[in-house]
């Protein structure tokens, strides 16, 4: 009796295996493959992040020298590696800022503007977007591209950036000889700075005082 039951169980097992064994086996293999691929991808991502961090540290070290002593080729090479690894990362975008800073020190203002525009077009966050906008406006001011600079300052702005935005408006308007409008912009900047208890109030007041001197002349 026992032998018959055992034989029946064996036959049932064989039947089950014939019907479902192959799909189960394939499913197990697929699961193992998926886990293996995921682990490989995860390790690859970690390795890439570590490499990006290392490259960024190298970039900081390279730019820590006096600007006239910086090895431009090294900076460009490292920045290019960060860009290729992930152009939208914070590392890549801060690298663009370093490239712009180096370009300005060499009076390569077109190169500086290009680097800053790349960040402004697709910033990693709002703060980087505004920072790239502010720096680009300063470069455009140096290039005397006043209309283009002023146009950039018309975009919506978060409350915490109003002071600098209005101060830059004043700088552009002053260079356009629009004294009254420049004064209004500086006053708006000063009001925002006082409201936020920012430390650049003295500079803005000096700019307003200089406008008062212009009125006397």
From TrEMBL:
Predominant subcellular localization, coarse grouping: membrane
Domain spans labelled Ancillary SecYEG translocon subunit/Cell division coordinator CpoB TPR: 14-213
Keywords carried by this UniProt record: Cell membrane, Chaperone, Membrane, Transmembrane, Transmembrane helix
Pfam family, one: TPR_21
Membrane association type: Single-pass type II membrane protein
Subcellular location: Cell membrane
One GO term describing the cellular component: plasma membrane
Gene Ontology molecular functions: protein-containing complex binding
Superkingdom as given in the UniProt entry: Bacteria
Gene3D superfamilies in the record: Tetratricopeptide repeat domain
Transmembrane segments: 20-41
Family, similarity comment: Belongs to the YfgM family.
PANTHER family: ANCILLARY SECYEG TRANSLOCON SUBUNIT, UPF0070 PROTEIN YFGM
Name of this protein: Ancillary SecYEG translocon subunit
Organism in which the protein naturally occurs: Entomomonas moraniae
